[in-house]
Design brief:
The structure holds 2 protein chains of 2 kinds. Chain A is of the alpha+beta class. Chain A has 10 helices and 15 strands. In chain A, strands 4, 5, 6, 8, 12, 13 and 15 form a 7-stranded antiparallel sheet that branches. In chain A, strands 1, 2, 3 and 7 form a 4-stranded antiparallel sheet that branches. A 4-stranded antiparallel sheet of chain A has the order 9-10-11-14, with no helix packed on it. Chain A is globular and about 80 Å long. Chain B is α/β, with parallel strands linked by helices. Chain B has 9 helices and 11 strands. In chain B, the strands form 2 sheets. A 6-stranded mixed sheet of chain B has the order 7-8-9-4-10-11, with helices on both faces. In chain B, strands 1, 2, 3, 5 and 6 form a 5-stranded antiparallel sheet that branches. In chain B, α5 runs parallel beside α6 and α8 packs across α9. The chains are: A alpha+beta, B alpha/beta. At the A-B interface, α1 of A face α2, β7 and α3 of B.
């Protein structure tokens, strides 16, 4: 391996850019640090957004620039006639990127964590893992992409064209697949979809790098890039596969559960007005696209193709049984299917009534009756309900239970918890704001209760955002953030709290962390269905 | 076509062809460059000289045919073999923001047989400014620097692609002096359309016209080959023909032959 001279050359050419990117990284880390847990520094908040953009742009530009010092496409490059092993050239580019991008990032991330008082080993472990992640999902793909271009201008044009290809592929795929487009989006298992995309991007990048640095096949490499974009935009991880993988990953906890769902009262069906007309459908689709929601845009476009059909809404009350106090039941996905009397599928929809990613059951009092939950199902075309029909609801559910508790004393000060990381509580007249930072994966489900010194307490506030990932860090930093707001006073006087602002001096907050997810499915069949009124 | 030299070839092509879409840049080129020769690849702009050299150095792929360089297929050039080839080109993309001194420092680590003393001599002889950035150098200075970079590792084969184009007489003499001074140590392939200059030092020539080889051989064989053409009285002095006169005569002859073979309307 002879890469020292290549590193020397690239450093000599690029050190001003390296300095700039490092300054951006330092500025970003400073802004993150000084924003604070409660985001009460307007200057750093104002800087954070542009610095985040600059952080990504700087990383990508740096990685591209080092590749462009010895471009692959073309026939006039100096390196072609020098005794340079192509594998050495590739290695030199990767090592350069690691030294000038990743190493400063690692130092800054660890330093930031140490300043906040996190242990060195845990901080270093989190930083190494995160920098490896950044290498795999950003730096290597950018190196590969840049290797198919001669300079920044070409890279920008090709990148823009690629984004168009990606957007068109995603839009077409969403239109054709409808509800099945991105089945894992906005669910607790969406990280698997991200993971597969990252893995696919990384594998594709390795193929491109091999093609470019060992064969100099730019045309084939560019084809791989474009095809990769089309595949990534179009191919989705099926829900059942994703849910099964998640169950397998959480295998240790996958014992059986006695949790059941049953309809509590007769189903009510009502006509809920006309579906959007063609023009409205197009407008809604455009708005959804502008918000980046390709799946919803596709759904609106499909509705536009069959306008004028009225909607019917079924309202179900379900009783959840089998949950124990302290357990939380999360609804990951609902698949609703209407069948005719002959068993023909009339309609299929996902997450009716926006029912994905919500808390479906939570019982705190052991003596309380099993909970009632409501399920709404919108059906385009109520005529289908006039036939003898049945409704089948397939629920994908996750149960979590308390795995740790932490009592925070002395509100108004920062405190450290073994499970929650660095936390702090801030008081105002109406609420207690609890905010935490952690170098570990932040809990996706936790609750907080304010206790007065004499044992009085306010209702437990539960916050769950289903996210069953195995530590997939954000690219920019190693710290994870979470927080919860605890009301203690209603300024309109409608609600009364046992622990009010006057009691907060000696109050404590009990934090409960939920984990050990258990994933399972339940099916509910409702038949016969009532006429819509 | 005449091949009059039985010496071992350092460069050899067999039916070498290159097409860019419908345009044929090279048509079944067969050349053989003897070891120790100063081999001039001559032709007008667009004749296929640079294409040939780029194929020889594996910068581009041939559409058909093969090329060997120092006994190895051009498609299999290894870094070890590239240590034996010096290359100077007017199109060479040198790192513009690097200073001359920095580029030499980079190259020293590239080559295992880099002779620093020779580097010093060349830099002194060619008056290269160490602190200037490569991008700030004039065209002639860049070519001189490229030459100074191509010699200190004492390559047995030096390839020069249009090293004289766009240079004033002084710079030409410096460049020519630079590589001729060490011509005894190596074989030299030089492509050029500056026929008068090349005539001063070439031992062998190959004429290319529109991607086709018109002639290759030693300078002596060229004169013999050209006499019948020149005695037609169409091109210059047949007793002491210049390279330019022979080239013009050959091109005209090739054009006449092409016109004759073209289908009549």
């Amino acid at each position: 391996m002879k890469i020292r001279h290549i590193l020397y050359k690239d450093w000599t050419l690029l050190w001003p850019m390296v300095a700039l990117v490092t300054i951006i990284q330092i500025g970003f880390e400073w802004a993150v640090h000084s924003t604070g847990l409660f985001q009460d520094n307007p200057a750093s908040i104002a800087l954070l957004r542009p610095l985040t953009l600059a952080w990504y742009a700087g990383l990508a530009a740096m990685a591209a620039a080092v590749v462009h010092q010895d471009t692959i496409p073309g026939a006039d490059q100096d390196w072609l006639i020098r005794p340079v092993e192509r594998s050495d050239l590739l290695l030199a580019k990767i090592v350069f990127a690691v030294i000038v991008i990743v190493a400063p990032m690692l130092v800054l991330n660890v330093a930031h964590a140490l300043v906040l008082g996190f242990p060195f080993v845990a901080s270093l472990r989190a930083a190494v893992y995160k920098e490896a992640f950044v290498c795999a999902i950003i730096i290597i793909p950018v190196l590969a992409f840049a290797s198919t271009t001669r300079n920044m201008a070409e890279l920008t044009v090709f990148g823009a064209a690629l984004m168009v290809v990606y957007a068109v592929s995603a839009g077409l795929s969403a239109f054709l697949l409808g509800a099945d487009w991105c089945p894992t989006c906005d669910t607790g298992v969406s990280w698997l979809e991200h993971w597969f995309r990252h893995a696919g991007t990384f594998a594709g990048a390795l193929v491109v790098l091999a093609l470019q640095y060992h064969r100099r096949r730019t045309a084939i490499a560019r084809t791989v890039v474009v095809m990769g974009a089309v595949v990534l935009a179009s191919v989705q991880l099926p829900w059942n596969a994703a849910f099964a993988i998640q169950r397998w990953l959480d295998g240790a906890a996958q014992a059986g559960t006695a949790i059941e769902l049953a309809p509590e009262s007769p189903v009510v069906a009502e006509a809920s007005g006309a579906a959007p007309d063609a023009r409205a459908g197009a407008r809604q689709a455009t708005q959804a696209l502008l918000h980046g929601d390709v799946g919803r845009a596709g759904e609106y476009l499909r509705r536009r193709a069959v306008p004028g059909r009225t909607l019917a809404t079924l309202d179900l009350s379900l009783r959840v049984t089998g949950t124990s106090p302290g357990e939380v039941l999360l609804l990951d996905r609902t698949e609703a299917r209407f069948f005719s009397g002959e068993g023909r599928l009339l309609y299929r929809g996902l997450n009716p009534g926006g029912s994905a990613g919500v808390i479906f059951g939570y019982r705190t009092d052991p003596a309380a009756a099993p909970e009632l939950v409501h399920q709404k199902v919108d059906v385009p075309g109520r005529t289908s309900l006039q036939h003898p029909a049945r409704l089948q609801l397939d629920y994908s559910l996750t149960r979590v239970q308390v795995v740790a508790e932490q009592r925070l004393r002395g509100l108004g000060r920062a405190f450290r918890s073994a499970d929650g990381g660095l936390c702090a509580a801030k008081l105002d007249q109406d609420e207690v704001f609890v905010r935490c930072k952690s170098v570990e994966q932040s809990p996706f489900c936790f609750s907080a209760t304010v206790y007065a010194a004499d044992g009085r307490h306010n209702p437990e506030i539960l916050k769950c955002t289903p996210d069953y990932r195995r530590n997939m860090p954000p690219p920019t930093e190693i710290l994870h953030y979470y927080g919860i707001d605890l009301p203690v006073h209603d300024r309109f006087g409608l609600a009364h709290y046992a622990v009010g602002p006057a009691d907060l001096q000696d109050a404590t907050v009990l934090l409960k962390f939920y984990g050990q997810p258990l994933h399972f499915k339940r099916t509910l069949v409702v038949s016969p269905l009532p006429e819509a009124t | 076509m005449i091949v009059d030299d039985a010496m071992a070839a350092v460069i050899e092509t067999r039916d070498l062809s290159k097409a860019y879409g419908d345009f044929g840049a090279l048509h079944a080129l067969n050349i053989s460059m003897p070891r120790g020769s100063v081999f001039a690849l001559l032709g007008a702009s667009g004749a296929g000289k640079t294409t040939t050299i780029k194929i020889l150095l594996n910068m581009i792929e041939p559409t058909r045919g093969t090329a060997t360089i120092l006994g190895v297929s051009s498609r299999c050039l290894t870094p070890r073999l590239l240590e034996q080839i010096g290359y100077v080109s007017e199109n060479q993309a040198l790192p513009a923001r690097l200073r001359v001194e920095e580029f030499f420092r980079y190259l020293r680590d590239c080559y295992s047989r880099w002779d620093r003393q020779l580097e010093g001599e060349l830099r002194e002889q060619l008056l290269l400014p160490s602190r200037r950035r490569i991008g700030e150098l004039s065209h002639g200075m860049r070519l001189k620097m490229a030459l100074a970079c191509a010699l200190p590792f004492r390559p047995p084969l030096l390839i020069l692609d249009e090293p004289l184009s766009g240079l004033d007489a002084l710079a030409r003499d410096e460049i020519i002096g630079g590589f001729l001074h060490r011509a005894a140590e190596m074989s030299i392939l030089i492509s050029s359309h500056e026929l008068d200059e090349v005539e001063r030092f070439a031992t062998h020539v190959a004429f290319l016209h529109e991607g086709r080889l018109l002639f290759q051989g030693s300078v002596g064989a060229l004169a013999e080959h050209a006499i019948p053409l020149l005695q037609d009285g169409r091109s210059g002095d047949a007793h002491k023909p210049s390279l330019r006169a022979i080239f013009v005569a050959m091109v005209q002859d090739a054009k006449r032959a092409a016109a004759r073979s073209a289908p009549q309307p």
